[in-house]
Design goal:
Blueprint lengths: L13 E11 L5 E11 L3 E5 L6 H8 L7 E6 L2 E2 L5 H8 L2 E4 L11 H11 L4 H14 L15 H13 L5 E5 L7 H16 L3 E5 L3 H6 L4 E5 L2 E5 L6 H4 L3
């Protein structure tokens, strides 16, 4: 895949570039192999594929939880293939990651969980209060700001995790099944939030099994089959889905 031109016809720089990347766990077989993709700045992609195809593994490379077994990887134009853990923190501050297991802090309230990235960044209290309150209202949790995660449903915890991931307007949002525990109405509302973040300048990659969601929103996709990634334009259907596999 080549770098895509923007609407003015000039080249935009990359958010992510993978060149012949592979990933294996320990001495096992490669779960990803020969992945070559370019994600331009301010782009929006769905990440699809059957269970076990490698979606979560690909995302773990993108948020620097793992290193490629081979190949080359760049993030925001810088080579991060062999990046040491002490230098990875500066890159992760530009990421908003939504995990399937949420990773909320049980001793913190809803408000404080969402506020955490802003506090780490040293943001002013007045801005924290405004931004966090606004986001929690958007995701329908304005009445649960003082609640602890353990008292909330899985869908409510998921919305907290999403609000926390986007509150500091990251350069790249990586969301692993962000609508998996909510009803259709909330899923659409959360998608609108991701679209708003995209309009503000974030690149967004959403891993999902929900084909109706992909069909509803006109964004291209990265599709994983058997450890290999195919880039498809908006509206295109992978052959495996067409054939009912």
């Amino acid at each position: 895949m080549t770098v895509l031109p923007n609407k003015q016809g000039t080249l935009v720089s990359d958010t992510i570039r993978l060149e012949n990347v592979a990933l294996r766990y320990g001495e096992g077989p490669e779960v990803l192999h020969d992945v070559s993709i370019v994600i331009p700045q301010r782009s929006f992609y769905f990440l699809t594929g059957p269970s076990g195809a490698g979606k979560t593994s690909l995302m773990s490379l993108m948020y620097l939880a793992r290193r490629p077994s081979r190949g080359r990887m760049k993030l925001f134009g810088e080579d991060v293939t062999g990046l040491k853990s002490d230098k990875a923190a500066s890159f992760r501050r530009r990421l908003g990651v939504i995990f399937q297991d949420f990773r909320l802090l049980d001793h913190l309230s809803t408000f404080d969980n969402v506020a955490l990235p802003l506090r780490i960044a040293g943001e002013q209290d007045s801005i924290i209060t405004q931004n966090v309150s606004e986001l929690l209202t958007w995701v329908g949790l304005e009445g649960l700001m003082e609640a602890r995660p353990s008292t909330l449903s899985g869908g409510q915890q998921q919305r907290i995790a999403i609000a926390r991931a986007v509150v500091n307007r990251p350069s790249l949002i990586l969301a692993d099944e962000p609508t998996g525990n909510v009803d259709d109405a909330i899923a659409i509302r959360l998608m609108q939030l991701f679209i708003e973040m995209h309009k503000l300048g974030s690149s967004v990659i959403i891993a999902t099994h929900n084909e109706s969601l992909v069909e509803r929103f006109p964004f291209p996709r990265l599709h994983i089959e058997q450890g290999m990634v195919e880039a498809l334009p908006a509206g295109a259907t992978p052959s495996a889905i067409t054939n009912g596999e």
